[in-house]
Amino acid sequence: MKSVDFDTIVIGAGPAGSTAAALLAENGHNVALLEKTKFPRYHVGESLMPFCYFPLERLGLTDQMDEIGFTQKFSVQFVTEDGSQSRPFYFFQHYDHPSSTTWQVLRSQFDELIMDKARENGAEVRELTTVKSFIEESGSIVGVNAISPDSTAYQLRAPMVIDASGRDTIAQVKHKWKKRDPELNKIAIWTYYKGAKRDPGLDAGSTTVAYLPGKGWFWYIPLEGDVVSVGIVAEREYLYNDTRELSQIFEREIKNNLWIDEHLNCGEQFGKYWSTGEYSYRSEFCATNGLLLAGDAYAFLDPVFSSGVFLALKSGEMAADAVSNAITNNDFSAGQFNDYGKELCKGIEAMRALVYAFYDESFSFGDLIKSNPDLRGDLTDCLIGDVFKDFTELFGAVSDFATVPSKLKHGLVA
Ligand SMILES: Cc1cc2nc3c(=O)[nH]c(=O)nc-3n(C[C@H](O)[C@H](O)[C@H](O)COP(=O)(O)OP(=O)(O)OC[C@H]3O[C@@H](n4cnc5c(N)ncnc54)[C@H](O)[C@@H]3O)c2cc1C
To answer: What is d(CA 222, CA 229) in angstroms, rounded to the nearest whole number?
Structure first.
């Protein structure tokens, strides 16, 4: 084999890639983290789940999270079309632990914090460096072809590559591994407001999910500096039914939920309107020889329960552990990553089943808990991100109200 430049190359410095790189470097491995943009860069996905705390704790970043002064999030609440508000769901009532106060983050700052940690731990971070393709030899990935900031093409070699390129999904595109979720095919339009209404006290930083029955839902995420992130998620045909002008669609939809309308009334929209076809997907495979997928580069789930950053951090952490083992065993074959794939799919499936229930017209969390008060704890576990456990009983009960999807068979090693 030709000489190698690094033990591991990580593509993408979002939460998944930077976490993997930081933990591998901390473990003494020689890691390159390649990021196509220059940080800080904009990213959507500001609302964290309580269990983000644990990967952040392992990274040694929880104190810095508090020092930065991100908006504290104590709860999530659900609002109906006519503006009726559920009792906020306070995480600390379920689990009396520091993780129960989580954060609404400015992703530019949050992602840079983790990338800086990777650098501090010894990873070689190269920004403005775009990975164009993989180098494949004798059935294994052995490096990448990249473009440097001055547009020079070059190769980097390593026995292990982690694809954490987010929704660019480099490996899925190259290998044609992308499998869209059969039902979760919504799109999102979002923007930002200044001076919009905040609920009082503990609820000031709450995430609100406001329903548009039969159509979709709004997110309302209070951020620092009196800014609120507001977005709508719904079917493409519905949103684009009379215009493709994002601002007009947004204005039209605000009027369809009283709570959203009332909260935005006193605020002022600023900046652009963003949109994405945010179709949910999972890669047919999580790994092949010399290659492992993490974060959105592996799977993306509808953002209704704010699970994306958590799954990115967690899969970054799990990828670092799996790759550390592979380095120790000097074995980078796909089989090394069997457990990684199985465990990650377990957590994703729990969230996915909950997302399906959310979109099922005949389902309500209230009815589920009224009939099964003993399952409140399991349901809460899902909502806070404690998802790597057995939820057979919970989803058995959910199936009395809503269709629970069959587990996807793909997503394991090639
Ligand atoms: C509309 C919407 C709303 C969302 N809301 C939430 C929310 O409220 N809460 C939540 O937890 N999640 C939310 N998410 C999901 C969340 O944004 C993602 O799950 C999360 O950012 C995934 O992290 P990641 O590290 O996998 O990828 P990313 O954060 O996307 O990072 C990938 C990085 O790879 C880099 N990259 C890409 N291609 C290359 C390349 N070829 N070479 C080098 N670098 C490359 C990119 O520049 C980027 O920096 C939302 C998503 C959407 C679409």
So the answer is: 6
Give residue-wise pLDDT tens across range 368-388. Answer: 999 999 998 999 999 999 999
Is the Cβ–Cβ distance between 301 and 355 less than 8 Å? yes
Kindly tell me the burial class for residue 214, based on how many C-beta atoms sit within 10 Å of its own C-beta (0-12, 13-18, 19 or more): exposed
**376-384 and 338-359 helices, crossing angle to 10°:** 110
> Is 168's C-beta closer than 6 angstroms to any atom of ligand 1?
yes
Which regions of the chain are under pLDDT 70?
1-2, 278
- Cβ 46 under 6 angstroms from ligand 1: yes
Domains detected in the chain: 8-70+105-180+281-344 (3.50.50.60), 187-276 (3.30.9.100)
What whole-number distance in Å separates Cα of residue 216 and Cα of residue 213? 6
Name the token pair of 300: 């993306």
Predicted pLDDT of residue 1: 52
Tell me the CA distances in angstroms from 223 to 47, 173, 204, 328, 376, one per residue in order. Answer: 9, 34, 10, 43, 29
Structure tokens at 397: 């009960």
Collapsing DSSP to helix, strand or coil, 196 comes out as: coil
What per-residue confidence (pLDDT) applies to 242? 93
CB of 45 closer than 6 angstroms to any ligand 1 atom? yes
Rounded CA-CA distance 216/150 in Å is 44
What is the per-residue pLDDT for 38? 98
Give me 61's structure tokens. 């970043």
Residue 236 CA to ligand 1 centre (angstroms)? 21
Structure tokens at 90: 């306070």
CB of 296 closer than 8 Å to CB of 308: yes
